[in-house]
Amino acid sequence: MALTPQNDTDLLDAYLEAEINAPDEPSKTFRLDFNQYRIGNMTDKKDALKQAITKAILTPRSYYRIYNDYYGCELWDLIGSDVTDAYIDAEIPRMVREAIEYDDRINVVNNISVTRSGDAIFISVEVDSVFGDVGTEVVI
Hints:
With 140 residues, the chain is an alpha+beta fold. The protein contains three helices and five strands.
């Protein structure tokens, strides 16, 4: 018996079996208070996912070196740019979807709605996740 897989099928089967039998990763993390800029106790499951969605939307993509190039949102590129309101309204849902869909806990992004009031942008996101339906609102 060989110590390494003899063909690609054996390797793929071994990988798939390891993925299926892998334990669920915990989603426990520190609670972030985005309004008061404080770190609090721990949070888990739905609340941790809501926080992750908010953080991904509020973090500019490719700005902080601690994150890879796929983390964050490109919304910040629109702020102060010379584009039409129709373009902004069309691009925000796409940018938000791209910012959050990488999360393994999210199965489907169901609904993204955007409302603008003066200089503020209110983004409402609803996702189907491994914890059930989760909704959150982010103000930029």
